[in-house]
Amino acid sequence: MKKTGSSVCLLLLLHIYLSIVVTNSAPESAIVTQIPGFNGTIPSKHYAGYVTVDESHGRNLYYYFVESESKPSQDPVVLWLNGGPGCSSFDGFIYEHGPFNFEAAKSKGGLPTLHLNPYSWTKVSSIIYLDSPAGVGFSYSKNETDYVTGDIKTASDSHVFLLKWFELYPEFLSNPFFIAGESYAGVYVPTLAYEVMKGIDADVKPKLNFKGYIVGNGVTDELIDGNALVPFVHGMGLIPDELFEEANRECNGNFYNSLSDNCTDRLTKIDEDIAGLNIYNILEPCYHGTEADKIITTYVKLPSSFRKLGETEKPHLVRKRMFGRAWPLRAPVRDGIVPTWPQLTSSNNVPCVDGTVADVWLNNEEVRKAIHTAEKSVVSSWDLCTDKISFDHDAGSMIKYHKNLTSKGYRALIFSGDHDMCVPFTGSQAWTRSIGYKIVDEWRPWLSNGQVVGFTQGYDNNLTFLTIKGAGHTVPEYKPQEALEFYKRFLAGLPI
Questions:
Q1: What residue spans define the domains of the chain?
Q2: Quick one: how far is CA 50 from the chain centroid?
Q3: Which among 141, 405, 459, 462 has most CB atoms closer than 10 A?
């Protein structure tokens, strides 16, 4: 009896041991043990490294994974994708909702100083920041033909990445899983979500616990996005009634694809009127090289109530400019090659565009070693947005993807900073309405700290449209507290 009892105890202990190994099997080599520029205690575990999505080509996607600061064993896991195409998701990590706020170095050649971000999305979820496709950020391929890519291939590679990533981190497989992104990720997110849905339907292993997706100021449909700018600038009081009425008459409501000289003339006049604005947030100053100081001075003289509307609570200037977020005005994404900002200009002097803090930090040798990037002989430097890839928009309108996904029960949050002129809320509002779902939560304000911070409308099949008052193209950058609020509520399935 004693022998049998001992055997049972040994089997029980073996079972417990194996359970611990299986449920805590994140690769030790991927652990980030120190973060250059940050001197405090890291509030949760960080991991970074590569997943090979094509062995024969040596195509490797880089990720940076931050565990939730709350309950990582239970909280949702979210994949975050920045847009471009061609922009690194470290954009979101550094400037938007990552665990740190980055303060520019006080001396030339120094590292930025990192402070804990009280509004990090990792307060309530674990986040995988993915550089995608290969050629973007720290992701690379040993076969340069892979740098000719597009929507469909990118979605397929990202799906392979997810399947392999969850094999590396199986302890998170049962957590609710969401996909999120902004700008050109308005294409990345639904196309990847569709691949994930197909994989689940086909019983592909490992089976992801996919619950829904989030898109912020995302491009969606050529016609609807293309026609969104003119109504937006008129509604914001940036052009006069007369010009709007003339453009409407001459263009017959078709603003993105001029069919007459008279229409082109009116659109050119509109472009001239708004040329000096920051297209990513019309409330923010736009920097044009040496003119920056003069613009800042003028901006500071504005009434405080106006300045605070688009102001971030972060302890430093968000950044002088924002590189590669989208395309020139009235150039919505159409079928075919989508140029990146570096491919559109021979100079980096794009108005309202810069990512100096990220450049300095991520190109530092100590940082690269700490976060497990490839050697410089493989990836020579990190760029916020790359000109290395040739990208083909080959998936068409995203509306059919959204219909398919939401009709199958996946939850969708479509949010817009309402002062973004790059991908105006007028387009997102129009396409969500165009799907034709029944309105189940009529247009109303939503609140944070007892204040109206935006408006929302809810549709059947768990589709929600949301605006954030005073925010620009990258909502968490301008309105971090409000962004965390709607993010937290959406993930939890609570009303916003």
A1: 31-223+394-492
A2: 20
A3: 405
Length of the chain: 496
Q: What is the pLDDT of residue 285?
A: 79
C-alpha span between 116 and 120 (Å, rounded): 8
324: left (phi over 0), alpha (psi -120 to 50) or beta: left
Count of CB atoms within 10 A of residue 376's CB? 11
Task: Tell me if 87 sits within 8 A of 222, measured CB to CB.
Answer: no
Helix extents (H) in 371-492: 399-407, 425-434, 475-478, 480-492
pLDDT per residue as tens digits for the range 88-137: 999 999 999 999 999 988 888 899 999 999 999 999 999 999 999 999 99
183 labelled catalytic: yes
| Bridge partner list, 465 | 414, 457
For residue 15, give Cα distances in angstroms to 5, 106, 171. 15, 54, 16
Catalytic residue among 75, 91, 392, 420: 420
Contacts of 261 (CB under 8 A, 6+ apart): none
Report the C-alpha gap between 264 and 262 in whole angstroms: 5
CB–CB of 183/195 below 8 Å? no
- DSSP 3-state assignment of 229? helix
Annotation says 420 is catalytic:
yes
Residue identified by tokens 């998701």 is 89
C-alpha 173/C-alpha 159 separation (Å) is 14
Q: What does residue 315 show for φ and ψ, rounded to 5 degrees?
A: -80, 10
Contact 149, 181 (CB under 8 A): no
Residue 70 has pLDDT above 60, yes or no: yes
Residue 489: which pLDDT band, with cuts at 50, 70 and 90? Answer: very high
> CB of 404 within 8 A of CB of 424?
no
Which of helix, strand or coil describes residue 352?
coil
Helix ranges restricted to H, 24-150:
90-95
Given this model, what pLDDT does residue 79 score? 98
Number of separate helices (H) and strands (E) present in the chain = 17, 16
How many other CB atoms are found less than 10 A from the CB of residue 320?
A: 17
Which of the residues 97, 372, 419, 473 is marked catalytic?
Answer: 473
Q: Give the pLDDT score at 21.
A: 41
> 414, 464 in Cβ contact below 8 A?
yes
Active site residue 393: no
Helix (H) or strand (E) holding 343: helix 341-344
Classify burial at 119, counting beta carbons within 10 Å of its beta carbon; exposed 0-12, middle 13-18, buried 19 or more: buried
CB 424 within 8 A of CB 406: no
CATH architecture of 31-223+394-492: 3-Layer(aba) Sandwich (3.40)
Considering only CA atoms, which of 97, 161, 169 is closest in space to residue 134?
A: 161
Residue of 259, 277, 290, 260 lying closest to 419 (CA atoms): 277
Provide the token pair at 141.
Answer: 């391929």
Q: Which of 88, 89, 158, 183 is catalytic?
A: 183
